[in-house]
Amino acid sequence: MKKTIQSIHEKLSDIYEPDEIRSFISMIFNFVFGYSKKEMILYADQLLPESSILKINEIISQLRNFEPIQYIFGEAEFYGMTFKVEPGILIPRNETEELVDLIIKRNQNLVLKILDIGTGSGCIAISLKKHLPKSELWCCDVSDKALDITRQNAELNKVEVNIEKFDVLGHSNFRESGFDLIVSNPPYVTNKEKSAMKKNVLNFEPTLALFVPDNDPLLFYRAIVLQAKELLNQGGELYFEINEAFGNEIYALLVENGFVGEIIKDINYKDRIVYGRH
């Protein structure tokens, strides 16, 4: 095993940082053998089957092509759960875990009707349902592939959520109403920010779920706020994950539409969540 680990380091060191490579190694050995980090230490001198080495080399080849490891494995970890992902589905992010954690902590033991707009893999809605089991969860997306993956992830994680196709930029309201809470992680990366992004994101993740025009970065937020005014109960809450560059503008958008709230920083002290109460 030691030789294989060293080989992985050597084959990836020219394109990935050391910490990222170490993370890949842990994920690869867990995926191929089911080993934890502790078991990797215990079995460090074990000889690996040729078939497993071939499988690992195939994974390394894909990583060298900048394919996201989550797409290679067909799954991603999020908030302590496993979610199916595939090309065309946005890979869940650590920042979004902070959004989910905040909502759960603020609403423990409450029975809410919650809508997740632009659900993607369903990670937000399914995680909320898992930890707020008495609440009713609705999730929507414009992508049929996203809705199908959400159905699979709900089944995988043994929760029931309501799934609907909906285009928030269209000119109709969501068919259900009377929500206590709406949450969304909409596209928020401007096109001019592409140059700073890694190839594994630019070449493989869905542009539909990531990017907004440079001249209208609040495109989705504006549409969702207008929907929220119609769909939320009085006193209902709205939670957004945001681009750190537009926290003040998104907060101002909420205030202009009759919400009161706050901008919340993430673990790295960047503006990451905007909260509003209707």
Number of helices: 11
Helix coverage percent: 40-55%
Low-pLDDT segments, ≥5 res: none
CATH homology group of the largest domain: Vaccinia Virus protein VP39
Number of strands: 11
Order of helices and strands: HHHHHEEHEHEHEEEHEHEHEE
Can you list the strand order of the major beta sheet?
A: 5-4-3-6-9-11-10
CATH architecture of the largest domain: 3-Layer(aba) Sandwich
CATH fold group of the largest domain: Rossmann fold
Our Rg estimate from Cα atoms comes to 20 Å
The profile of the biggest β sheet is: 7 strands, mixed
Strand fraction:
15-25%
Number of domains: 2
C-alpha end-to-end distance: 57 Å
| Average of pLDDT | 94
Looking at the structure, what is the overall shape?
Answer: elongated
CATH class membership of the largest domain:
Alpha Beta
Pairing-aware structural class of the strands and helices? alpha/beta
Short characterization:
The protein has 278 residues and is α/β, with parallel strands linked by helices. Helices cover 41% and strands 20% of the residues.
